[in-house]
Amino acid sequence: MSEETSLKSTVFYSLLPPFILLTIDLFALYLQPQSFAVSHLSLALLSAQLLCLFLFLKGEMCPGQRARLINLNKGFLLFWLTWLFLSAFSTYHYYLTDLVSLCGIGATLAICLQPKKIRQRRPFIFIGMALASLGFAVYALMFLDMPLIFLPMFNPLTQILTGIILANLTLLGAKNRLHNFMAILPMSMLITLFLNALFVLGLLFYAHLQRVVFPWHLPWILYFGLHLLLLVIIGGALFMQKRLDYLLLFILLIISASLPLWATFAYLHP
Predict the structure, then answer these.
(1) What is the pLDDT of residue 4?
(2) How far apart are CA 27 and CA 129, in angstroms?
(3) With a cut of 70, which residues of the chain have pLDDT below it?
(4) 114: how many CB neighbours lie within 10 A of its CB?
(5) What pLDDT sits at residue 270?
(6) How do the residues of the chain divide into helix, strand and coil, expressed in percent and rounded to 5?
(7) N or C: at which end does the chain have fewer Cβ atoms within 10 angstroms?
(8) What is the sign, positive or negative, of the torsion defined by CA atoms of 29, 165, 231, 137?
(9) DSSP of 171-185
(10) How many CA atoms lie within 13 A of 266 on its CB side?
(11) Helix, coil or strand: residue 72
(12) pTM value?
Protein backbone atom coordinates (compact mmCIF):
# COMPACT_ATOMS: atom_id res chain seq x y z
CA MET A 1 0.00 0.00 0.00
CA SER A 2 1.42 3.40 -1.00
CA GLU A 3 1.97 6.14 1.57
CA GLU A 4 -0.71 8.31 -0.06
CA THR A 5 -3.28 5.50 0.04
CA SER A 6 -2.40 4.78 3.67
CA LEU A 7 -2.87 8.46 4.57
CA LYS A 8 -6.26 8.58 2.86
CA SER A 9 -7.33 5.42 4.67
CA THR A 10 -6.26 6.87 8.04
CA VAL A 11 -8.12 10.13 7.43
CA PHE A 12 -11.23 8.23 6.34
CA TYR A 13 -11.29 5.91 9.37
CA SER A 14 -10.52 8.75 11.78
CA LEU A 15 -13.17 11.19 10.52
CA LEU A 16 -16.06 8.91 9.52
CA PRO A 17 -17.27 7.81 13.02
CA PRO A 18 -17.13 11.30 14.64
CA PHE A 19 -18.77 12.80 11.54
CA ILE A 20 -21.68 10.33 11.76
CA LEU A 21 -22.07 10.93 15.50
CA LEU A 22 -21.92 14.69 14.99
CA THR A 23 -24.59 14.56 12.27
CA ILE A 24 -26.95 12.56 14.50
CA ASP A 25 -26.17 14.79 17.48
CA LEU A 26 -26.86 18.04 15.65
CA PHE A 27 -30.15 16.71 14.31
CA ALA A 28 -31.14 15.74 17.87
CA LEU A 29 -30.20 19.26 18.99
CA TYR A 30 -32.50 20.69 16.32
CA LEU A 31 -35.39 18.54 17.60
CA GLN A 32 -34.89 18.87 21.37
CA PRO A 33 -37.34 21.07 23.31
CA GLN A 34 -34.52 22.76 25.24
CA SER A 35 -33.22 25.99 23.70
CA PHE A 36 -29.57 25.59 24.70
CA ALA A 37 -26.71 23.57 23.24
CA VAL A 38 -26.45 20.20 24.96
CA SER A 39 -24.82 17.29 23.17
CA HIS A 40 -26.63 13.95 23.28
CA LEU A 41 -23.41 12.03 22.57
CA SER A 42 -20.54 13.79 24.39
CA LEU A 43 -20.26 11.01 26.95
CA ALA A 44 -19.94 8.50 24.12
CA LEU A 45 -16.80 10.26 22.86
CA LEU A 46 -15.41 10.64 26.38
CA SER A 47 -16.07 6.95 27.12
CA ALA A 48 -14.24 5.88 23.95
CA GLN A 49 -11.32 8.17 24.78
CA LEU A 50 -11.08 6.82 28.33
CA LEU A 51 -10.92 3.27 26.99
CA CYS A 52 -8.20 4.28 24.53
CA LEU A 53 -6.25 6.04 27.28
CA PHE A 54 -6.48 2.91 29.42
CA LEU A 55 -5.02 0.90 26.55
CA PHE A 56 -2.25 3.44 26.02
CA LEU A 57 -1.41 2.96 29.70
CA LYS A 58 -1.80 -0.81 30.09
CA GLY A 59 -1.96 -2.30 26.60
CA GLU A 60 1.07 -3.95 25.05
CA MET A 61 1.24 -2.19 21.67
CA CYS A 62 4.09 -1.88 19.24
CA PRO A 63 4.99 1.66 18.04
CA GLY A 64 3.04 1.13 14.81
CA GLN A 65 -0.19 0.13 16.58
CA ARG A 66 0.18 3.00 19.04
CA ALA A 67 0.73 5.51 16.21
CA ARG A 68 -2.31 4.28 14.29
CA LEU A 69 -4.52 4.48 17.39
CA ILE A 70 -3.27 8.02 18.06
CA ASN A 71 -4.07 9.04 14.47
CA LEU A 72 -7.62 7.71 14.72
CA ASN A 73 -8.16 9.61 17.96
CA LYS A 74 -7.27 12.84 16.17
CA GLY A 75 -10.59 12.62 14.32
CA PHE A 76 -12.44 13.24 17.61
CA LEU A 77 -11.33 16.86 17.41
CA LEU A 78 -13.93 17.34 14.66
CA PHE A 79 -16.69 16.56 17.16
CA TRP A 80 -15.30 18.63 20.03
CA LEU A 81 -14.37 21.71 18.00
CA THR A 82 -17.78 21.77 16.31
CA TRP A 83 -19.59 21.65 19.64
CA LEU A 84 -17.33 24.28 21.17
CA PHE A 85 -17.94 26.62 18.24
CA LEU A 86 -21.68 25.90 18.23
CA SER A 87 -22.09 26.54 21.95
CA ALA A 88 -19.71 29.47 22.37
CA PHE A 89 -20.67 31.45 19.27
CA SER A 90 -24.40 30.91 18.82
CA THR A 91 -27.71 31.70 20.48
CA TYR A 92 -27.67 28.12 21.85
CA HIS A 93 -24.76 29.04 24.15
CA TYR A 94 -24.44 26.86 27.24
CA TYR A 95 -21.37 27.16 29.48
CA LEU A 96 -21.42 23.50 30.58
CA THR A 97 -21.17 22.42 26.94
CA ASP A 98 -18.19 24.77 26.55
CA LEU A 99 -16.46 23.07 29.48
CA VAL A 100 -17.23 19.53 28.30
CA SER A 101 -15.93 20.38 24.82
CA LEU A 102 -12.73 21.84 26.28
CA CYS A 103 -12.25 18.69 28.35
CA GLY A 104 -12.72 16.58 25.22
CA ILE A 105 -10.24 18.71 23.28
CA GLY A 106 -7.74 18.48 26.15
CA ALA A 107 -8.10 14.69 26.37
CA THR A 108 -7.59 14.39 22.60
CA LEU A 109 -4.48 16.60 22.69
CA ALA A 110 -3.10 14.56 25.59
CA ILE A 111 -3.48 11.44 23.44
CA CYS A 112 -1.99 13.02 20.33
CA LEU A 113 0.98 14.70 22.05
CA GLN A 114 2.09 11.77 24.20
CA PRO A 115 5.82 11.03 23.80
CA LYS A 116 7.11 7.69 22.56
CA LYS A 117 9.05 6.83 25.74
CA ILE A 118 6.99 5.03 28.39
CA ARG A 119 8.04 7.13 31.38
CA GLN A 120 7.51 10.40 29.53
CA ARG A 121 4.07 9.56 28.17
CA ARG A 122 2.52 8.44 31.46
CA PRO A 123 1.85 12.04 32.67
CA PHE A 124 0.09 12.80 29.37
CA ILE A 125 -2.09 9.72 29.73
CA PHE A 126 -3.02 10.57 33.32
CA ILE A 127 -3.81 14.16 32.31
CA GLY A 128 -6.02 12.85 29.48
CA MET A 129 -7.84 10.52 31.89
CA ALA A 130 -8.34 13.36 34.37
CA LEU A 131 -9.74 15.67 31.70
CA ALA A 132 -12.09 13.01 30.31
CA SER A 133 -13.31 12.21 33.83
CA LEU A 134 -13.82 15.92 34.50
CA GLY A 135 -15.87 16.07 31.29
CA PHE A 136 -18.11 13.32 32.70
CA ALA A 137 -18.57 15.27 35.94
CA VAL A 138 -19.34 18.55 34.16
CA TYR A 139 -21.84 16.84 31.87
CA ALA A 140 -23.59 15.36 34.91
CA LEU A 141 -24.12 18.87 36.33
CA MET A 142 -26.69 19.68 33.66
CA PHE A 143 -29.03 17.05 35.11
CA LEU A 144 -29.35 19.16 38.28
CA ASP A 145 -31.54 21.68 36.44
CA MET A 146 -33.24 19.21 34.10
CA PRO A 147 -36.56 17.49 34.88
CA LEU A 148 -36.08 13.75 35.32
CA ILE A 149 -38.56 13.01 32.57
CA PHE A 150 -36.17 14.43 29.93
CA LEU A 151 -33.33 12.12 30.95
CA PRO A 152 -33.89 9.49 28.19
CA MET A 153 -32.79 12.07 25.59
CA PHE A 154 -29.39 12.41 27.28
CA ASN A 155 -29.20 8.98 28.90
CA PRO A 156 -25.61 8.32 30.15
CA LEU A 157 -26.01 4.54 29.74
CA THR A 158 -26.97 4.93 26.08
CA GLN A 159 -23.95 7.13 25.52
CA ILE A 160 -21.60 4.71 27.30
CA LEU A 161 -22.92 1.91 25.07
CA THR A 162 -22.15 4.03 22.02
CA GLY A 163 -18.73 4.82 23.48
CA ILE A 164 -17.85 1.13 23.89
CA ILE A 165 -18.86 0.47 20.28
CA LEU A 166 -16.88 3.51 19.13
CA ALA A 167 -13.79 2.33 21.00
CA ASN A 168 -14.09 -1.12 19.43
CA LEU A 169 -14.51 0.48 16.00
CA THR A 170 -11.47 2.70 16.59
CA LEU A 171 -9.31 -0.25 17.64
CA LEU A 172 -10.38 -2.21 14.58
CA GLY A 173 -9.74 0.75 12.29
CA ALA A 174 -6.27 1.10 13.83
CA LYS A 175 -5.59 -2.61 13.10
CA ASN A 176 -4.91 -3.17 16.76
CA ARG A 177 -3.95 -6.65 17.95
CA LEU A 178 -5.26 -6.42 21.51
CA HIS A 179 -7.58 -9.35 20.84
CA ASN A 180 -8.09 -10.29 24.51
CA PHE A 181 -9.32 -6.79 25.35
CA MET A 182 -11.47 -6.52 22.22
CA ALA A 183 -13.04 -9.91 23.03
CA ILE A 184 -14.62 -8.55 26.24
CA LEU A 185 -16.15 -5.49 24.56
CA PRO A 186 -19.22 -7.27 23.05
CA MET A 187 -20.20 -8.63 26.47
CA SER A 188 -19.73 -5.13 27.92
CA MET A 189 -22.06 -3.85 25.20
CA LEU A 190 -24.73 -6.41 26.11
CA ILE A 191 -24.56 -5.60 29.83
CA THR A 192 -24.81 -1.86 29.15
CA LEU A 193 -27.68 -2.45 26.70
CA PHE A 194 -29.60 -4.45 29.32
CA LEU A 195 -29.02 -1.82 32.03
CA ASN A 196 -30.09 0.92 29.64
CA ALA A 197 -33.37 -0.85 28.82
CA LEU A 198 -34.15 -1.30 32.53
CA PHE A 199 -33.25 2.31 33.27
CA VAL A 200 -35.48 3.76 30.54
CA LEU A 201 -38.35 1.43 31.44
CA GLY A 202 -38.03 2.67 35.02
CA LEU A 203 -38.17 6.28 33.83
CA LEU A 204 -41.25 5.56 31.72
CA PHE A 205 -42.92 3.92 34.71
CA TYR A 206 -42.08 7.02 36.77
CA ALA A 207 -43.59 9.19 34.02
CA HIS A 208 -46.74 7.06 34.13
CA LEU A 209 -47.01 7.55 37.89
CA GLN A 210 -46.60 11.30 37.37
CA ARG A 211 -49.35 11.16 34.73
CA VAL A 212 -47.02 12.39 32.02
CA VAL A 213 -48.55 11.72 28.60
CA PHE A 214 -46.20 11.41 25.64
CA PRO A 215 -47.71 12.85 22.45
CA TRP A 216 -46.20 10.10 20.30
CA HIS A 217 -45.75 6.44 21.33
CA LEU A 218 -44.29 5.05 18.10
CA PRO A 219 -40.76 6.33 18.87
CA TRP A 220 -40.73 4.33 22.11
CA ILE A 221 -41.72 1.19 20.19
CA LEU A 222 -38.86 1.79 17.76
CA TYR A 223 -36.54 2.65 20.66
CA PHE A 224 -36.97 -0.74 22.31
CA GLY A 225 -37.18 -2.48 18.94
CA LEU A 226 -33.66 -1.22 18.24
CA HIS A 227 -32.60 -2.66 21.60
CA LEU A 228 -33.76 -6.07 20.36
CA LEU A 229 -31.90 -5.57 17.08
CA LEU A 230 -28.69 -4.70 18.96
CA LEU A 231 -29.24 -7.74 21.19
CA VAL A 232 -29.61 -10.05 18.18
CA ILE A 233 -26.51 -8.71 16.40
CA ILE A 234 -24.19 -8.63 19.42
CA GLY A 235 -25.60 -11.76 21.05
CA GLY A 236 -25.47 -13.65 17.76
CA ALA A 237 -21.80 -12.79 17.33
CA LEU A 238 -21.05 -13.97 20.87
CA PHE A 239 -23.06 -17.16 20.46
CA MET A 240 -21.31 -18.06 17.21
CA GLN A 241 -17.96 -16.94 18.68
CA LYS A 242 -17.32 -14.57 15.81
CA ARG A 243 -15.62 -11.20 15.92
CA LEU A 244 -17.62 -8.13 15.02
CA ASP A 245 -16.12 -6.77 11.80
CA TYR A 246 -15.82 -3.06 10.93
CA LEU A 247 -19.05 -2.87 8.90
CA LEU A 248 -21.11 -4.56 11.59
CA LEU A 249 -19.63 -2.34 14.30
CA PHE A 250 -20.35 0.71 12.17
CA ILE A 251 -24.00 -0.36 11.89
CA LEU A 252 -24.12 -0.91 15.66
CA LEU A 253 -22.66 2.57 16.16
CA ILE A 254 -25.38 4.20 14.05
CA ILE A 255 -28.15 2.25 15.80
CA SER A 256 -26.93 3.00 19.32
CA ALA A 257 -26.23 6.66 18.53
CA SER A 258 -29.76 7.04 17.15
CA LEU A 259 -31.40 5.95 20.43
CA PRO A 260 -31.36 9.48 21.94
CA LEU A 261 -32.83 10.71 18.66
CA TRP A 262 -35.82 8.34 18.92
CA ALA A 263 -36.29 9.32 22.55
CA THR A 264 -36.40 12.96 21.45
CA PHE A 265 -39.08 12.17 18.86
CA ALA A 266 -41.30 10.81 21.65
CA TYR A 267 -41.57 14.32 23.13
CA LEU A 268 -42.71 15.90 19.85
CA HIS A 269 -46.21 16.11 18.50
CA PRO A 270 -46.66 13.96 15.35
Answers:
(1) 62
(2) 29
(3) 1-5, 34, 269-270
(4) 20
(5) 64
(6) 80, 0, 20
(7) N
(8) negative
(9) HHHTT---HHHHHHH
(10) 25
(11) helix
(12) 0.94
